[in-house]
Amino acid sequence: MTTVGFLLLPGVHLLDLAGPAQVFSTAADLGLGYAVRYSAAREEVVTAQGLALRVSTDALAPSPDGLVLVPGWRAGGRVPYRVLAEGQAAALAAHRAAGGTVASVCSGAFALGEAGLLDGRRCTTHHGLQDLLARRFPRARVVPDVLYVPDGGVVTSAGIASGIDLALHLVTVRHGPAAAAAVAREMVVYARRNGDEPQAGVMLRHRGHLVDAVHRVQDAIDARFRETLPLAELAARARVSERTLTRLFTAATGLTPLRYQQGLRLEHAEHLIGAGETAEAAARAVGFRDARMLRRLRARPA
């Protein structure tokens, strides 16, 4: 039985906690042998979303097979130099020294840094806190714009929902990709994302503009990215000429409509490959005739 202990700090984000907790709880339901525990400095922890949680104040015991995970809390770009209560930093360090795994979601990385666990290690956090983490812990090697980073028994992840990806990664390490895929299916999660994927996917990275016509075309491509979408059809949806659509789309997103669609296909194919599909099967599933175009896109500089 593997114990997964969540160390909760005041103002913890619900999804930072609930996402990984659901992964390990579901894994336990599937017979993978997990026991989930919760600990805090006080019996009541009020979350960032206002929900009060009642938890144990017993310290999480060091274990060579266990995992201690620190979810993030509402930081707003301002993280105190001391976020841990008395004894918590030593407990985290002792758990790692005993051979156990220590992990964090979002601003939880600052707790690991306070415990000295980021020194000399690669790590990450929410994109809005990466620069602060690097300044606060100069011996840490902060990796920007990735979902999660494992390094020597210490695993850090980006913000909020990336904790699910981190937890599925840890299940994969212990039990293999098939077990993680079973957990993901039970949770109705599309697929386990790879750690080096950017924190914002293709849809989010290219949606920061204010051009309604381009948003309408993006909606169509997002919904039907596997299909062949003639430029004339997309221009009709935007109610502009093909030439005008290409100009507007490129100015708003930095990509042509075709490159945007290819980016979506590539992103979805990478998800499938990460879940165990072959490149050929993934390519066909996202709309390519075969894997040749997929290989070219994977090799193309970002």
TrEMBL record:
Keywords: DNA-binding, Transcription, Transcription regulation. InterPro entries: Class_I_gatase-like, DJ-1/PfpI, Homeodomain-like_sf, HTH_AraC, INH-QAR. SUPFAM superfamilies: Class I glutamine amidotransferase-like, Homeodomain-like. Residues 215-302 form the HTH araC/xylS-type domain. One of its GO terms (molecular function) is DNA-binding transcription factor activity. It holds the Pfam family DJ-1_PfpI. Gene3D superfamilies: 3.40.50.880, Homeodomain-like (1.10.10.60). The keyword Transcription applies. PANTHER family: ARAC-FAMILY TRANSCRIPTIONAL REGULATOR, HTH-TYPE TRANSCRIPTIONAL REGULATOR RV1931C. This is Transcriptional regulator GlxA family, contains an amidase domain and an AraC-type DNA-binding HTH domain.
